C-alpha cells in the first residue's frame, strides 16, 4: 500500500483564546504530517517547557497545550512549530487571561456637612483583563458590623450622600466589578463624622483652648 507524505499542515493557523483566571486552559491543534513531525512550543518567542502546571501533548494527528489554574502571567502568544524532512509549519494561539479587577485606589471623603458628604475614588490599576462595568459603594454606621449598599450599577468615580445623621460616624468601602465579578473592597481609613465644617472648627478651637487652661 501507499502512504501519502507531505509538508506538515495545521488546520487552524491562528486562534484567539480567552480563559478565566484560575480555570484550566486546553487548546488542541489538529494537524497533518507524514512522516511524523517534531513538535516544539514557544511563548512570546521563548521556548516553552512543561512543568507542574503546563502540559504539552502530541500524537500523530494533534498537539495540545494545557495549563492548569491559569494566571494573568499565562497571557501571551503561543506558537506551535511542526517540522519533518519535507518542511515545517507554525500555528499561533493568542491567549488572554481575564479575572477579577484589582482594588480601587485613593478613596476619600470631602464636602462633609451634618447630613451629607461626597466619596471619591480612583479606578484599579488592573481591570482583570476585562473592562470595569460599574462600582459598588457601601457604608457602615459606627457600632454596627454590617455594610449597606449606597451605590451600585453606576460606572462613576464619586458619589454624594445626603441622608447622614448629624454627628453620626460612617465608614465607607468601594469595589470595582467587571463581567467576571467584583474585586476586593478598598476601605476608607478613618470614619466620616457628619458635622458642619464651622462647628468642627469651633469644637477644635474650643478643645484646644480648654487644654491650655
UniProtKB/TrEMBL annotation:
> Where in this chain does the record put each Ig-like domain?
8-98
InterPro entries in UniProt: FN3_dom (IPR003961), FN3_sf (IPR036116), Ig-like_dom (IPR007110), Ig-like_dom_sf (IPR036179), Ig-like_fold (IPR013783), Ig_I-set (IPR013098), Ig_sub (IPR003599)
- Could you confirm whether the keyword Chaperone appears in this record? no
Domain of life of the native organism:
Eukaryota
Q: Does the keyword Repeat apply?
A: yes
Keywords attached to this entry: Immunoglobulin domain, Repeat
Q: What is this protein called?
A: Titin
Pfam families hit by this protein: fn3, I-set
Query: Which residue range or ranges hold the Fibronectin type-III domain?
Result: 103-197
Organism, per UniProt? Callorhinchus milii
